[in-house]
Structures are given as structure tokens and as C-alpha cells.
Write a structure and sequence with these properties.
The chain folds into 2 domains: about 70-95 and about 110-195, no CATH class; about 195-414, MetI-like (MetI-like fold). The protein is about 70% helix and about 0% strand. The chain is built from 17 helices and no strands. Helix 10 (about 205-230) runs antiparallel to helix 15 (about 320-350) and helix 14 packs antiparallel against helix 15 (about 320-350).
Length: about 425
């Protein structure tokens, strides 16, 4: 029997600091200068945020920032949707920890790894502090506390009993998210017995997330089809995909948004042109699909040609060989670039304010134009930056978790 490799000793915090930050005199001087700058900047920001900033502009307009001009008597639908999202998030989070990864033969998964404990602690702190900092009413504070408790309870229950679920139920669980998206669209817009709420009344963070999620969900399959079309052997399909991708990539998004707002009204007969919100949503979708197609094409190029030939030699048809053999490998390679495009798409929703839609940035401009809040630009823009950073960080964390999940060679986080 071959001898076991020697156990590696993990360095302590002081040894790590000395090795990484103070390995030499020059490294030590640079580290001290950078640490001093970061500490001074953090102290200055904290002093401004705690003693000089006037956060009344945020607390007085918190509902406007969140949902825009959504009717007050219908906002219970948004609270219901938030509760359902919290339940689905906790359930998915717990099942990802409870169920072993495909092809993994290592130790059983840890139900509450260190990263999850940190995430749960941050959620609790935000739920306790943020409603108080924004001076929200007691009813709204209780709702946020209940939703946070519900999310963590669902996370604990799914992690505790997820392995006991039958295999059929496990395969059906991912369908929760597309069904929840459809239910959310009905709750937001109305229908099925609910009062209709016009898209012109949507705004703030609600409109930003809705536009970004709509474009992300539709641009991904469209981008995959365009990438496959560009690599097709059919000349018409290949050149059509190429012309579409190059035209979209060569035109600025703001130009396409203005074209979508003005041209569709002339091209389509009266009554068939979609609302301004949906025109912008489709423009974002078609714009992002061209960039996703290039990311997927890079993944397809990384898959050896022998993979497709081997699948075909086993008797698989071309569509089945692409779906079951080529695309899973290509998606694993293209995932980082694709998620990067999703993050860019979320940030590009700020251009909607230039075409008259009250997204998060458009709502902020409306608030700052109020004479009662003149000069409060720093507070508003800081809150917007934090909100966008949280959304982009969530996409990035989800991408890294999915990469770990799809790669059996990577150990799960502890």
C-alpha cells in the first residue's frame, strides 16, 4: 500500500498575515500604506453616514424607491409575492446543501457550512437593523422580520429533511421557480380576478428587477439558439445569426431603446403595439441575447469535436447529441462570461430612465428634483449603489455556487 501523503498544516492568522502582507520590507510598506488608506476612507464614510448625512430623504421615499407609484391598496400582492420568494429561496438553499452533487463520491454535504452561517447572520442583522434605520412603521417592520424568519425556517427544514424526499419530487422542485415567476407576473400586473395595475404605475426597484429578470430569462435560450445557428452548416441560418449578432453588438443600447419606443408604434397597427415598459423589456432581451450568444459560442468552441462525433456514433441524433453531450460541457465553460453579461444587463437597466421609465435611477432623479430634498444627492446615490451591488453580488454568488455544483472536482464550501 502506498504511503499516505503527509498532512498539510494550515498556517495560523499571524503566519498568514506575515506571509501574504509582510513577506518583505517593500511588501510591508505597501501593505501599511494601503491599510491606512482603507481605514481612513472607511472612518470618513462612517463619520459622514452617522453624523452628517440626512437619511430622511430615504425613509420618506422608501415606498417610492421600492415599488414606484404602485397603488397602495394593491401592495398586499407584492408582500404576498415577497413571502413566496422567501419560501422558494429558503427551500432551494436548503436542498442545495442537503442533496449530494451529481457524480460526487466524497463525504456527505454539510448542512450549515461556515458561509451559510455567515449569510444567515447577515440576513438577521439586516432584518433587524434596516427597518429601524429607515424608520419604517411597526407593521412593515413586523412583516420584514416574519419574512426573514420564514426564509431561515424553510432553509432549515429543507436542509434537515431534503434527503428524505422521493426522487420524483426532487426532479420537480426546480419547476417551482418558473411557476413562481408566472404567479408573480399575475400578482404584479393583475388578472384572474385581481385588479389590473398598468405598467406605467410600476417603478423603482420593482421595475428594475422585473425588467432585468424578464430579459435574463429570455435572452439565455435565445442566445443559445443564436450560437448554434452561427455554427450551423446551413448558410442561410449561419449568415442570418451572424448578421443579427454583429448588428446588435455594433449598436449602442440607448439607440436601440429609443428605436424600440418610437419605431414599433409605426410598424405595428393600432392596438397591437405593446406598452412602453414591454417594448423596453424586449429590446433589453434582444440586445443581451447577442452577447450571450458569443459567450455560448466560446463554450462550444472549447468542447472537442470528438465529443459530438462520439455521441453520433452511439446512435444519438444531432439534437439529442447537442442537448445531452455538447451543451452541458459548453455551458460549464461559458457560465462565468454569461453571468457577467447578466450583471451588465442589470446595470444597463439604468438607461430606462432616459426613455421616461421610472426605474430605480429614474425614481431617484424624481426624488432629488423635489425641493424638499435638494442637495441630498450623496445619500440617494449611495443607497442606489448599495442596492445594485447587492443584486450583482447575489448573481455572482449564485454563479460561483452553480460552478461548484456542476464541477465534481471542486470541494463544497465549509
Amino acid at each position: 500500500m502506498a504511503p499516505a501523503p503527509p498532512a498539510t498544516l494550515r498556517p495560523g492568522p499571524w503566519q498568514w498575515l506575515r506571509r501574504e502582507l509582510f513577506g518583505s520590507r517593500l511588501d510591508g510598506l505597501i501593505s501599511i500604506a494601503l491599510l491606512g488608506f482603507l481605514v481612513a476612507a472607511a472612518l470618513g464614510l462612517a463619520r459622514w453616514a452617522l453624523f452628517q448625512a440626512q437619511w430622511a430623504v430615504i425613509s420618506a421615499n422608501s415606498t417610492l424607491f421600492a415599488v414606484g407609484r404602485y397603488p397602495l391598496e394593491q401592495q398586499w400582492r407584492l408582500w404576498l409575492l415577497t413571502t413566496l420568494l422567501a419560501l422558494a429561496t429558503g427551500l432551494s438553499w436548503g436542498l442545495l446543501r442537503a442533496l449530494p452533487r451529481s457524480g460526487s463520491s466524497g463525504p456527505p454535504p454539510i448542512l450549515w457550512p461556515r458561509n451559510d452561517r455567515w449569510a444567515a447572520a447577515i440576513l438577521v442583522l439586516l432584518a433587524l437593523w434596516l427597518p429601524l434605520a429607515l424608520q419604517l412603521t411597526l407593521a412593515i417592520q413586523l412583516r420584514w422580520w416574519a419574512i426573514t424568519a420564514l426564509l431561515l425556517l424553510a432553509r432549515w427544514a429543507a436542509g434537515r429533511w431534503g434527503q428524505a424526499l422521493p426522487p420524483l419530487v426532487r426532479r420537480l422542485i426546480p419547476l417551482i421557480w418558473p411557476l413562481l415567476y408566472l404567479v408573480g407576473m399575475v400578482l404584479i400586473s393583475g388578472g384572474l380576478g385581481l385588479v389590473q395595475v398598468a405598467p406605467s404605475d410600476w417603478g423603482g426597484l420593482l421595475l428594475t428587477l422585473l425588467m432585468a429578470s424578464f430579459a435574463i430569462l429570455l435572452c439565455f435560450p435565445l442566445g443559445v439558439l443564436l450560437a448554434l445557428g452561427r455554427r450551423s452548416t446551413l448558410p442561410l441560418l449561419r449568415w442570418g445569426s451572424l448578421l443579427y449578432i454583429e448588428f446588435i453588438r455594433g449598436a449602442p443600447l440607448i439607440t436601440l431603446l429609443f428605436l424600440g419606443q418610437n419605431i414599433l408604434g409605426f410598424l405595428l397597427p393600432g392596438g397591437l403595439a405593446p406598452d412602453r415598459v414591454w417594448r423596453a423589456a424586449w429590446v433589453l432581451t434582444f440586445f443581451a441575447a447577442a452577447y450571450v450568444a458569443e459567450a455560448v459560442r466560446s463554450g462550444l468552441a472549447a468542447v472537442p469535436a470528438g465529443q459530438l462525433e462520439a455521441a453520433r456514433s452511439l446512435g444519438l441524433s444531432m439534437p439529442f447529441a447537442l442537448i445531452h453531450v455538447v451543451l452541458p460541457q459548453a455551458m460549464r465553460v461559458a457560465l462565468p462570461a454569461t453571468v457577467g453579461q447578466f450583471i451588465t444587463l442589470l446595470q444597463d437597466t439604468t438607461l430606462l430612465s432616459l426613455i421616461g421609465l421610472l426605474d430605480l435611477l429614474g425614481t431617484a432623479r424624481t426624488v432629488m428634483a423635489n425641493p424638499a430634498f435638494l442637495g441630498r444627492n450623496a445619500e440617494v446615490y449611495l443607497v442606489l449603489a448599495v442596492l445594485f451591488w447587492c443584486c450583482c453580488a447575489a448573481l455572482g454568488l449564485g454563479s460561483r455556487a452553480l460552478e461548484t455544483r456542476l464541477n465534481p472536482n471542486l470541494a463544497p464550501s465549509r
